C-alpha cells in the first residue's frame, strides 16, 4: 500500500515545528522578571479600588433591561 507523498512532505515540517514550539514553551526561561517588593509600580488600596471600578464599568455594558 502506497502512502501519500504530499502527506510525508507536510508531516515532517509540521513535526519539526511542533518540536520547536514545544521546546520554546517548556524551556523554563521566564520572559520577564517579577517586580521587586516595594517597587514604584505597586498600587495603593485606594488606587486598586479606583482601577477595579473603572475596569468593571468598561468591561461589558449591561443591557437596559438588566436589573441593576
Commentary on this structure:
The protein has 68 residues and is mostly helical. 53% of the residues lie in helices and 0% in strands. It is built from two helices and no strands. The chain has helices at 5-25, 45-59. It is elongated, with a radius of gyration of 25 Å. The model has no long low-confidence stretch (mean pLDDT 76).
Explain the layout of strands and helices:
Layout: H1 5-25, H2 45-59
**What structural class do helix, strand and pairing data support?**
mainly alpha
Helix content: 40-55%
Give the helix tally.
2
- Can you count the beta strands? 0
| Rounded radius of gyration (Å) | 25 Å
Largest sheet composition: none
Strand content: under 5%
Q: Mean pLDDT, rounded to whole units? A: 76
Shape: elongated
Calculate the terminal CA-CA distance, rounded to whole Å: 67 Å
Helix and strand pattern: HH
Q: Any low-confidence stretches, pLDDT <50, length ≥5?
A: none
Characteristic key phrases:
68 residues; mainly alpha; 53% helix
Short description:
53% of the residues lie in helices and 0% in strands.
Amino acid at each position: 500500500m502506497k502512502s501519500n507523498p504530499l502527506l510525508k512532505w507536510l508531516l515532517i515540517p509540521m513535526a519539526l515545528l511542533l518540536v520547536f514550539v514545544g521546546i520554546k514553551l517548556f524551556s523554563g526561561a521566564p520572559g520577564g522578571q517579577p517586580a521587586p517588593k516595594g517597587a514604584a509600580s505597586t498600587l495603593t488600596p485606594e488606587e486598586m479600588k479606583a482601577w477595579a471600578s473603572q475596569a468593571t464599568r468598561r468591561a461589558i455594558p449591561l443591557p437596559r433591561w438588566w436589573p441593576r
